[in-house]
Each structure stands twice: as C-alpha cells, then as structure tokens.
Amino acid sequence: MPGHSKDLTRLRIALTTFFALDGFIFAGWVVRIPAIKEQTGASASTLGLALLGVSAGAVVTMMFTGRLCRRYGSHPVTVVCGILLSLSVALPPLTHSTWALGAVLLVFGAAYGGINVAFNSAAVDLVAVLRRPIMPSFHAAFSLGGMIGAGLGGLVAGSLSPTRHLLGLTVIGLLVTAVAGRALLRYDSPVPQPAPVPQPAPGQQSAAVPQPAPGQQSAAVPQPAPGQPEERAPRRLDPRTRRLVVVFGLIALCTAYGEGALADWGTLHLEQDLDAHPGIAAAGYSCFALAMTIGRLCGTTLLERLGRTRTVVAGGTMAAIGMLVGSLAPSVWAALLGFAVTGIGLANIFPIAVERAGALAGPSGVAVASTFGYGGMLLGPPAIGFMADWFSLPIALTSVATLAAVAAVIGYGTRRATAD
Questions:
Q1: In 10 A of CB 289, how many CB atoms?
Q2: What is the 3-state secondary structure (H, E, C) of 272-294?
Q3: In 269-348, alpha helices (H)
Q4: How far is 277 from 282, CA to CA, in rounded Å?
Q5: What is the pLDDT of residues 212-234, one digit of tens each?
Q6: Which candidate, 383, 291, 309, 304, places its Cα nearest to that of 349?
Q7: How far is CA 374 from CA 185, 246, 299, 300, 354, in A?
Q8: Distance, CA of 17 to CA of 36 (rounded, Å)
C-alpha cells in the first residue's frame, strides 16, 4: 500500500494512463469499422450482428471481473486485461467473414469489459484513500484518449491498411501497458485508514479489544503473510445496499444511453433533418465529445463545490434542456450548441454513479454499474432507430432528454445515500 503522497500520485498517473489507453484503442478500432466491413463483405445487418460480439463479450466479462478483482486485486487484473485488449485489437482485420469477425470481437469485447471494471475498481479505492472526488478526471482521460485515437485513425486511414493500423495500436498498447503496468503492480490497492480506536485510560484495559498475552499476536486482526497481498473477502450486502447499487446502475444507464444515441444518430440528424453539410454534420459528435471532456476535467472542482447530489441533478437537468434544443432546434448551429450543453451535463454523472456503487459494494458494485451503463450505451442506438421509424428522428432523440431528466430525479432521490 502506498505510504505517502508521492506513491499515491504515481498510482494515480498509472491508472489515468490505463483509462486513456482504453479510450485510445477502442476509438482506433471504431474508425476502421467501415474498412473492415468492406473487407469481410458484410451487409449492414450482418455487420450489426458481428458487432454484438463486442457487447456480448463485455457484458459477460463484467459480470465476473469483480470476483477476480477481489481474489487477485484490481491492479493485476487491470494489467492482464490491458495486455489482452492490446493483442485482440489486431485480430479484426485478419478476418474475412462476418462469423470470424464476430468471434474475434467477442474476445476484444471481453478484454474491454474486463479492463473497465478493473480500473474503475482501482480508481474507487484510490478515491476513498485520497478522500477527494477525482473520479471524473479518470473518465476525462478516457475521453481524451478516445479523441486522440479517433483523430489519429482518421489521419492514417488513407495511408495505412486496417491491418497495419491496428497492429500499430497493439504495439503502442503493449508498450504503454508495460510502463504503466510496472508502476501499477508496484503497489497493492490502497485501503482507507479506519477510524482510530479509542485508547483506554492508563492502567485500564479496553473491553472492546481483547489484549494478547505478552509475546503473542492479537487474534482480532489477522495478519497476511509477508510479501503476499491481502485478499479481500466479498462484502455481505443488506437488501437496502443492493437496491442502492442497482439505483446507481440505473443512473449510469440513463446517461450512457445518451452517449450511444448521439454517437450513432447525432450526425445523421444534422445532415438529414437540418440539411447540414457533411463536414459540419460530422462535427456534431465532436462538439458533444469535446464538451464532455471539458466537463470531466472540471468535475473534481464541481464535486468539491456542489457535492454529488447537486452535480447529478444539475447535470441531468442541463443535459435534458440541451438535448431538447439539440433535437428540436430548427437550425444547425442551435443544434450544435444543444449537443455541447448535453455533453457538459452528462459528463460527470456516469463517473459519480460508478464511484458510489463501488464505495457501497466494492468491485461487485463497479461491475453492476458498469454493466448497466454499457447496457444503456447499447440500448440507445437501436431504441432511437425504432422510435425514428415510428415517429421521426428528432422526436426519437428527445428520449435522451427524458432519460437525462430521469437521472436527475433519481439522483435527487438518493441524496441521503450520497450524504452530500
């Protein structure tokens, strides 16, 4: 366990690096999907089925990664998943059929889901030790990594084949994992110091803590063997705590739904419904992602000043208003402004939900919240598509505003649980 602030700072830098690497690799894969589609000869529908491999692998892995973190520690699991993620991103361009693509994406999704639970669990432990709300800064690193990965992918798409590009990501990923992983493995997961035990008056013995005989070790506090990490026992959660973890998972779902919806449908809305130039339409998601990154970089300051409840309520309200403007405004620039406001509003809600679930239930809580959140990101695009067929795309996009408002209401309802 880190014994002083320098060790904690190094640990924070190593974790931040893994968050950024995750976003960088995932975005690098996403920008090459069109080329992989052409290479495999997949139709839109069969490609959609193949892409479900990422989702299925991630969700299944998230369900048991919490147990691995409790048994082996979140730091080793993060490093192993970082290696698997880096290796598996090179596999999609080696496939020549949609079935083979779906199989390798299952592996890629498993690594992606595992590392998300592992490094979020490690971040929750560090937040508890530092006693500062720094969770948004980790997710800001993920967003920054994603922006860099997407930008670099766009630059090299015309000169590098998908095979060389994604193999390059593998090399970068393994190098970064080797450096950051070495720093991460140097420390056990930090554990918050317990409240001090009241000391008895001189000459008196505390009735609460039995005193050992001279030369013997106290039986009340088992000591791990020298050089071996302390294994954490799974927490026994009462029904109320389990319900709270699920509630925070629902908050994560409501906000991640918006991220998935805007990623897949924002550009189409600008181009199809508002007659935006393709270049300007492509900037729609960039505005949203940039605003979300800025919001997360400011997240720690917001949480220290407003607290968790006010940040969730204000963010959800802001996102609801912004998305109503973004989906219903009659002009392109108003819609872009609405997307940016939505990004700022949603920025810190997901990190808060994951952090609170982890504080209540450890790695299992992080796994639950992450699974709900990832499910929301998957639910958004197809739900928007069905509603667009039934009504219209602008009306369908207002569901993002509705769920953001729901997150704000749920966040207000959990104000006692967050204690701020």
A1: 22
A2: HHCCCCHHHHHHHHHHHHHHHHH
A3: 278-297, 299-328, 332-346
A4: 9
A5: 444 444 333 334 444 444 444 45
A6: 309
A7: 27, 14, 21, 23, 12
A8: 28
